[in-house]
What we know:
- By secondary structure, this protein is of the alpha/beta class.
- It has one domain (3-316): Rossmann fold (3-Layer(aba) Sandwich), CATH 3.40.50.1820.
- It is built from eleven helices and ten strands.
- The chain has an eight-stranded mixed sheet, with helices on both faces. A two-stranded antiparallel sheet has the order 1-6.
- Strand 9 (252-257), helix 10 and strand 10 form a beta-alpha-beta unit.
- Helix 2 (98-112) crosses helix 3 (124-135).
- The longest helix has 25 residues, at 292-316.
Amino acid sequence: MKYLRTPDARFAHLPGYPFEPHYVTLHDNEGGQLRMHYVDEGPRNAPVVLMLHGEPSWSYLYRKMIPIVAQAGYRVIAPDLVGFGRSDKPVAQSDYSHGRHVQWMHAFLQQLHLKDMTLVCQDWGGLIGLRLAAEHPEYFAAIVAGNTMLPGFPLAHPAVRKVFGPLRRLRATLGFGSWFAFSQFFPAWTAGFVLRLGTTRALPPEVRAAYDAPFPSPEYMAGARVFPRLVPSDMRNNRAAWKQLMQWQKPFLCVFSDRDPIMSAMADIFPALIPGARGQLHTTLENCGHFLQEDGGEAFAETIVRFLQEQQSRAAA
């Protein structure tokens, strides 16, 4: 598998991102190897919070949240998906698939010997992370889903029909359709530009540049450009994952935003289908767009800390 590696100089002096890089080496499933980058902050023996980003972002998206959660006494692991951030970037779009990313992330967790984690996932972080949780529940103690979804949920289920009616379906369909068309037919978009489209707050030029840092040229963006086409893929395994998630009894918290044109319409699906989501204090962050880590990162992090502390209190009682 041919890949590109973004020069380290591209990541020097990024605003608000002082974290030391860490790396693991993964098999690329074609006889070669790929390097995956991750942030590792907080006490090494503390409970782990795994933060998975989506596209076209990278672990920089969590820069406001990592210190808050780490300072609360948790170990925060924030990897860059293959094709993004400081991780290696296969150059052929055919090298990317939903299933392959689940496999790579599973190998990553195995190498770090992580267990009893709280998964925090947004956008494609949920498509990958929720599959992992369903297929390997022994790794996870809890889940926090933020502006994400796993395709393949049962549309005919009475609980889904109740919370995801025709108007919500239309809103989500139109929202994703607009993004899909833009991503595939507008050739010159950049990660920084997309982050700005998906936020309610203005992003300073240096922050937009930080999102562009992993991609020195279009050749580096195969993953970012193909991911929208992969959303409806691997549906057989997604449906199998939903069967497991509909039996998930561990704590499951939703933190969605009110101004996401796609995911806001889906915020009630998890509580309707997942046993562990029932009775949780699900949160809606106001005046936040799709990238709620940018628009409301501090509030998102504080919500996660309260959720974790509440679970610890219940376990100790």
